[in-house]
Design brief:
- By secondary structure, the chain is an alpha/beta fold.
- Helix content is 38%, strand content 12%.
- The radius of gyration is 19 Å and the shape is globular.
- The termini are far apart.
Length: 305
């Protein structure tokens, strides 16, 4: 197993700034557009067993959020070489931001900045898939329910799977607790990685904490709407829809050295002590990476240039 002193080490002076587009990826000329529309109308496109539609994701869904990635948050990635080129791996990241834009930015990062343009298959809470439009689009973009069965199948297929173990506790925490990791749950993601024998890539995301600073909550209204929380921020709901515009914080996404699991046997996934200890170790690694990246980034709102 990789030791704590090695697992959190992020490379210096390396990375992609501002999400530079892949070479040759124009995707907007008329011929391509007409060909894309024809395939959609005739049904000549592929969807996997989870509902993932790679063409729609590449040509439409990611294009919708890419301006946020490149120009609004000006995302810089580090340690991308720690993400495998073509084999299965589990990316474990911190979760924050009140509205979970960090998952979308992580998906764009791995698609645009990884040399093999890898799709990320995020594991999401069941609330996401109960919402008619969001649930459908999540399936189309490659995401699925955060359950051991789906995680195991994806990892064994060699997919790159992403998980946010803090869940709603992380994304909905108050601004006063920013960049302090919440509990990582019971370690189900670790058990899945052990069963599949794939590495765990610790990932730290800096910048999401500042986009919607949560200064309060409306718990009664949240329960009435079936939501885990309903936030109050300096701009929402006081400025109406304008309050939903995220603040343009500077983001950095770092990928640490992979933590191997292939030294364990499948039966070790059922050992609660081993799973808990490894889960706790990964949490410590992600927290250390967060601290490093915050220092490296500096101010959350540097001058625009």
């Amino acid at each position: 197993m990789t030791g704590p002193e090695d697992a959190h080490d992020l490379p210096r002076g390396e990375g992609h700034a501002y999400g530079s587009p892949p070479e040759g990826d124009d995707g907007h000329d008329l011929a391509d557009l007409l060909a894309f529309l024809r395939r959609r109308v005739t049904g000549e496109y592929e969807v996997d067993e989870f509902g993932f539609d790679p063409e729609l994701t590449d040509k439409v869904l990611l294009d919708l959020v890419r301006p946020l990635y490149r120009h609004w948050f000006r995302v810089e990635t580090l340690g991308m070489h720690n993400v495998p080129d073509d084999s299965g791996a589990l990316v474990v990241a911190n979760h924050s931001g009140t509205i979970p834009l960090d998952g979308l930015m992580l998906q764009v990062a791995l698609h645009d900045d990884h040399p093999r343009r890898r799709p990320l298959r995020l594991l999401g809470a069941d609330l996401v898939y109960r919402l008619p439009v969001l649930g459908h689009l999540s399936r189309k973009s490659g995401h699925t329910l955060a359950c051991p069965e789906d995680a195991d199948r994806l990892l064994r297929k060699g997919e790159l799977v992403g998980v946010f173990p803090e869940g709603f506790k992380g994304v909905g925490k108050p601004f006063s607790e920013r960049y302090r990791l919440q509990r990582f749950g019971r370690g189900g993601f670790v058990a899945s990685a052990i069963r599949a024998g794939v590495p765990i890539v610790p990932c730290s995301i800096v910048g999401a904490e500042e986009i919607y600073p949560k200064i309060g909550d409306l718990p009664l209204l949240a329960r009435a709407l079936g939501l885990p929380y309903l936030p109050l921020t300096p701009l929402f709901p006081w400025f109406g829809l304008l309050g939903l515009v995220p603040l343009p914080s500077k983001w950095m996404i770092g990928f640490g050295e992979p933590i191997r699991t292939d030294e364990f046997g499948p039966a070790d996934a059922d050992d609660p002590t081993l799973v808990f200890n490894l889960t706790d170790h990964i949490r410590e690694v992600v927290q250390e990476q967060l601290n490093e990246l915050r220092l490296r980034r500096g101010h959350a709102f540097p001058p625009f240039y």
